[in-house]
Design a protein that fits this description.
It is built from 22 helices and two strands. By secondary structure, the protein is an all-alpha fold. The chain folds into two domains: about 210 residues, Arp2/3 complex 21 kDa subunit ARPC3; about 160 residues, Hypothetical protein af1432 (Orthogonal Bundle). It has a two-stranded antiparallel sheet. The N and C termini lie far apart (about 90 Å).
Length: about 450
């Protein structure tokens, strides 16, 4: 009885199909990392000072590489490859207009289990190799990413190891060291990003830095437990280089799950923004001109908040409340009654809005300062008083359906001062006038 030889074509087809799947997967990953043309142009010809800084950083990376001993090199090369592969996990767009990479837990594991020098080399060269191999983005952008990621990571690793050595008890030491690494890394990473934006574009350093830190603090804190568990296992197994490498690789495998959590959180933030925009469109249809008025008031409230040094989260709440402060005018009956009536209606519309501060501010912003009793003035919501002042100023300057505006900041300042006390909190008058003047200078420039 003869035998039928295996059909080699089926193996070939299977191999070709598998390679096609891999190629398609890599193509999708690379496309997700592609930046817009404007962002790519930003790093095609960076300023001379930036190129010099980045060149020096590359020299430091090379020097760090030469500091590794011969027996460390194989494991560090493998670690560099693992880090480079994590670059293929696609980033998630942030509502702040940034790109978020879900590798915090992996980085904390790397910094906790490897020395500062090994960390610096793996992050720096892993970034450069991955970017070159997969053509993710431009050379200068890759180089500045090594500064944002590698140097904070190396410093955080140094701090973490020092903390671990100083605290008795392996479990307690690793726990404290892990959180120390997380805090130091995030502070330095976002500080370098904010510094870059400040030096290159004049963006305010502190407010941008704080907004980055406060964007998703829960996920950042939850990044610490996994590195602690893996570090305990590593020390229990003797913390050999290949055991450490295996555990670091296991941390990298969790990145897709971290990305899914991050994507869900940021999507929820964008959904809230979409709700705000939908409400604004509905209001504009009911009250033409309301959208422009709300945008101006929101900008002025934001500038006042920055001058009052409120937190980024509070500033976001204030700006949202300013955008929606007239949403009660959607109700036709409220348009026929007093401003207090439509403020109350607006609060009812926003009762289920995720941020309760927004509804509270909208409810109170038409309450005249003189009508707030002395007993509760100290407890009056600051945001509502800021919103009330900004709306009074905007109506004086740009007018209302019943009265023409004064047209300029100079001619608006005097009638605005007349409202201080009856309608406007006296403590905020100078802040508002300075903020309005600052915005006028900014627009003129």
């Amino acid at each position: 009885m003869g035998t039928v030889p295996p059909d080699s074509r089926s193996t070939t087809v299977y191999s070709t199909g598998a390679l096609a799947v891999i190629r398609n997967w890599l193509r999708v990953i690379v496309e997700l990392n592609v930046r817009s043309p404007a962002e790519r142009d930003e790093f095609r010809a960076p300023p001379v000072w930036l190129r010099r800084v980045l060149t020096v950083s590359l020299v430091v990376d090379v020097v760090a590489l030469t500091r590794l001993s011969a027996h460390e090199v194989p494991a560090v090369i493998a670690l560099t490859i693992i880090y480079g592969l994590t670059m293929l996990v696609p980033p998630v767009p942030s509502p702040l207009g940034m790109i978020r990479t879900p590798r915090v837990a992996f980085l904390v594991t790397l910094m906790l289990l490897w020395s500062p020098t090994e960390t610096l080399v793996a992050v720096a060269f892993g970034t450069l190799v991955a970017v070159s191999l997969f053509r993710l983005y431009e050379f200068w952008r890759a180089t500045i990413n090594t500064v944002w990621w590698a140097y904070p990571a190396a410093i955080a690793s140094f701090v973490g190891h020092a903390v671990f050595q100083a605290i008795p008890g392996r479990l307690v030491g690793l726990t404290v060291a892990s959180f120390a690494i997380l805090v130091v890394y995030l502070l330095l990473n976002f500080a370098l990003l904010a510094l870059y934006r400040h030096l290159r574009y004049g963006a305010p350093f502190f407010s941008y830095w704080w907004s980055c830190l406060a964007e998703n603090p829960q996920a950042q804190v939850l990044a610490a437990p996994l590195p602690i568990i893996l570090a305990i296992v590593a020390y229990g197994l003797g913390r050999g280089p290949w055991v450490t490498l295996l555990l670091t690789g296991l941390s990298a495998v969790t990145m897709p799950a971290s990305r899914a959590q991050l994507a869900v959180y940021l999507a929820s933030q964008r959904t809230v923004q979409d709700i705000v925009q939908a409400l604004m469109i509905a209001l504009e249809r009911a009250v033409p001109g309301a959208h422009d008025h709300a945008e101006r008031v929101s900008e002025l409230v934001g500038e006042m908040g920055r001058r009052l040094h409120v937190s980024a989260a509070t500033l976001e709440s204030w700006r949202t409340a300013a955008l929606l402060h007239d949403i009660g005018l959607i109700d036709a009956a409220s348009r026929m009654e007093s401003p207090v009536s439509h403020a109350a209606m607006g609060a009812r519309v926003l009762a289920s809005y995720p941020d309760a501060v927004v509804a509270d501010m909208v409810r109170e912003h038409h309450t005249p300062w003189a009508a707030v009793s002395l007993r509760v003035r100290g407890q009056a919501v600051l945001g509502a008083r800021v919103l009330a002042a900004a709306e009074c100023y905007d109506e004086l300057r740009y007018g209302t359906p019943d009265a023409a505006g004064h047209g300029s900041h100079g001619s608006t300042a005097k009638p605005f001062r007349a409202l201080v006390g009856p309608l406007v909190d006296p403590r905020l008058a100078s802040v508002l006038l300075e903020a309005a003047e600052g915005l006028e200078r900014k627009a003129a420039s």
